[in-house]
UniProtKB/TrEMBL annotation:
<keyword id="KW-0812">Transmembrane</keyword>
<protein>
    <recommendedName>
        <fullName>DUF420 domain-containing protein</fullName>
    </recommendedName>
</protein>
<keyword id="KW-0472">Membrane</keyword>
<feature type="transmembrane region" description="Helical">
    <location>
        <begin position="38"/>
        <end position="61"/>
    </location>
</feature>
<feature type="transmembrane region" description="Helical">
    <location>
        <begin position="73"/>
        <end position="97"/>
    </location>
</feature>
<keyword id="KW-1133">Transmembrane helix</keyword>
Length: 99
């Protein structure tokens, strides 16, 4: 799940970065950007977040039974970017709304 979370996150961010050359979606053109975000970007980022939360929850649940400490930290490290990105986006939206 951690590999899937990290892979989905990197794939979604890569497609988002290259959306004009790959898909012809020009930046600033609202209907195409809204459709792209609604159909592809938000669901893939949400899937990465859910997988990341599942990995962290599962590791916390089985912390004492899993003996390999390096594996635990590697899996947490692979799932934290999705959680951190969503946290950053939510905090940024809250700051913008309260200004």
């Amino acid at each position: 799940m951690a590999f899937a979370s990290c892979g989905i996150l990197l794939f979604a961010l890569g497609i988002n970065f290259l959306r004009e050359p790959l898909l012809g979606i020009k930046e600033g053109y609202a209907p195409h950007n809204f459709g792209f975000n609604f159909i592809f970007f938000i669901p893939s980022m949400l899937a990465a977040l859910i997988l990341g939360l599942a990995v962290v929850g599962r590791i916390i649940k089985h912390w004492k039974t899993w003996r390999d400490l390096n594996k635990k930290w590697i899996l947490i490290g692979m799932s934290i970017p999705a959680i951190g990105l969503w946290t950053f986006m939510i905090v940024r939206m809250i700051i913008i709304v309260t200004e």
